[in-house]
Amino acid sequence: MEMVRPREKVAAGLAQIAGLVVISFLICRVVVLNSIFPCGIALVTVLMYRNRLNLYLLLPMVLGSITYYGSNYLFYGDVTALLLCAIAFTVFGNRRIDLPARAVIAAIIAISCNCSYYILKHMFYRLSIFMLLAEVLIIFILIFTFNNFFSFVTLVKHSEVKIQKRNELGVEKAVGSTAAVMVLLLCGTGVWSLDPSKASLPLIGGLFLTLLFGYCGGIGAGLIAGTSSAICVVLCTGFTPAIIMVFLAGGFTAGVFSQESKAMAAVCFSGACLVLGMITTYPELFIPPYEPLTASAVMALIPKKYLVELKKAFYMIRKDNAYCEMESKDQLIKVLDQHYRTFERLANLYGNARSNRSIISYQFRGMAQVTESLRNNIQEVNHGLSWTDSQPKFNVKTAHSAYGQIAGVSGDSFQYKDISKYEYGILISDGMGKGKAASAESSLAVSTLMDLISSGFDVKLALKTVNNILLQQEGDEIFSTVDLALIDRLGGKLRLFKIGAAATFIKRGEKVAAVKMAALPLGIVDGLHIDFINVRLRPGDQIIMLSDGISEANRQDLEMTWLKEAIRDIKSRDPQTISDLIMNRAIEAYGIREKDDMTVITAVLE
User: In 10 A of CB 460, how many CB atoms?
Assistant: First the structure.
């Protein structure tokens, strides 16, 4: 049963906020070239560009910056610039100014604040033009680095991203920006040492990222990650620039062994770094053995499934044949597994049937449809059509409210979920009677119908199959109503199948329309006649589906005027609120009478 999980959404939102707070605090603690603080200026520029609501992150950014209070003269100008950038970009709006223009504004603010501070303190003679120019250049680079990093994180979090965004990002930008940000975060911890006898956390992190990206993204990704990580280590920790060569050698080696086991790649990576670092002719290349060995050990401990997901993310950005092949295999496994569960359930159901002849006929027809659908899907992936498919134009936000009369067990069963890439399904079934027996009957109809439709069965064929299964059951007669809504998220069309079900209400603005269709429930007659109603939807439309326990709450009002007025009076657009309010009105309408099982499902088209 597909259900809304607000707690999970809240937890995910809190985790995202906590992550941004930690990033903001640590990034603003990074000191570049031992004297300047450009990271906070660049970060606040990007955060305000992406969403003005990120202004709350100004507090951890300031707290991170003031941990270096009084460290040098450039500190005061950079912190002032950070605050002025936050104020300026809040006033300018969210996306009225593009990112390059914001980078220029941020650089001008940084220069102005530093020059003003030195002039006010009568120390203009101590101002270094070289340091100002270096800071401006670093601010520019960091602004685009941070923006690419957040774009990559969004891509990994939401696998279905618009094609143009994949094209804009690119593997090079994703790898370089992510490696740079991760090393900067490690530098922000302040946990490192230049003593060759001790391990350096940023150096270990940079080597690990080089190995990770080289192994998952290939030679190019390894070289880019190595260069980006090494430059950040050099600028923030004071290591000699010669160690860039060690990172490049490690990234190249990791890429070469990207098709081998992770253990082999880690061993060869460590060997390349240590051999190059131990060349006595060039002592500036020397790095302690702890760093590459620790990075390789961490790599060896990462579960394989996470490495596969990262490789998949790179393939997705590249849009190459490797990703198409992986997507094709995943699609096949998912579809075949779904078919297996469906036919396994049907096989179990046939055990109680008196005659399987008509059901088998439907099954052969359905399996032919499934096979044709599966063949078309494979053909599309093999021809790369999945990259040019239209994206759904509409989203469906759904929630429900339910009431069970007997011990909290409802005879109503329901599901709502994506049937396919473009189609969303909502199904309510009311079993004849109450309690566990009715619940079992309706669950049978719901689970079997949804499985058949999701597997590729034509809706009418799926309904006829379930109807015949119910007819052939030994023992007591089993009846179930079916109220099925299929929403086309590409064209905005709604198909309503009503088999003995209550009316469905569609609200558009202040108008509420009831959709009814007379038909017997499933499991009563053979040769079931099935028809459906087409409705053209618009963004903002509300679809309210309910069981007859709701519609019959006021039996004196056969036209259900009370229900229409209740729906019309609800001003909220939140489906959970709408469902709860309708349920409350139905309970009020029953009064002291015995209440039937009740279910309300509300879907809002966005």
Answer: 14
What's the CA gap between 508 and 272, in Å, rounded? 67
Rounded Cα gap, residues 515 and 339, in angstroms: 33
- The number of angstroms, rounded, from the C-alpha of 533 to the middle of its chain's C-alpha atoms is 34
Instruction: Kindly indicate the confidence band of residue 603, based on its pLDDT and cuts at 50, 70 and 90.
Output: very high
3-state SS class at 405: coil
Torsion angle defined by CA atoms of residues 107, 108, 110 and 113, in that order, rounded to the nearest 10 degrees: 180
Instruction: Give tens-digit pLDDT for 240-271.
Output: 888 888 888 888 998 888 888 888 888 898 88
Burial (CB < 10 A; 0-12, 13-18, 19+), residue 7, is exposed
Whether residue 190 contacts residue 29, with contact meaning beta carbons closer than 8 Å, is answered with yes
SS3 content of the chain, % helix, strand, coil (to 5): 60, 10, 25
Pick the closest to residue 298 from 458, 387, 182 (CA basis): 182
> In the 3-class helix/strand/coil scheme, how is 94-120 assigned residue by residue?
CCCCCHHHHHHHHHHHHHHHHHHHHHH
Total residue length of the chain: 606
Whole-number Å distance between alpha carbons of 81 and 45: 11
Buried b (16+ CB within 10 A) or exposed e, 329-365: eebeeebeeebeebbeebeebeeebeeeebbeebbee
For residue 384, the SS3 value is coil
DSSP state, residue 385? G
| Tens-place pLDDT, residues 442-494 | 777 788 788 888 877 788 878 887 877 777 665 556 677 889 999 999 888 99
DSSP 8-state assignment for residue 445: H
**Biggest CA-to-CA distance, the chain:** 100
Cα(269)–Cα(115) distance, integer angstroms: 46
The alpha carbons of the chain give a radius of gyration, in whole angstroms, of 31
Threshold 0.70, pTM exceeds: no
How many CB atoms are closer than 10 A to CB 509? 10
Structure tokens at 397: 């936000």
Cβ–Cβ contacts within 10 Å for residue 81, how many?
Answer: 28
Q: Which residue has the tokens 């998220």?
A: 489
DSSP code of residue 351: T
161-192: b (≥16 Cβ within 10 Å) or e:
beeeeeeebebbbbbbbbbbbbbbbbbbeeeb
Within 8 A by CB and 6+ apart from 554, the residues are: 560, 562, 563, 589
Name the DSSP class of 501.
P
Helix (H, G, I), strand (E, B) or coil at 416: strand
Report helix, strand or coil for 93: coil
Predicted pLDDT at 513: 92
Confidence of residue 542 (pLDDT cuts 50, 70, 90): very high
- φ and ψ at residue 30, rounded to 5 degrees: -80, 130
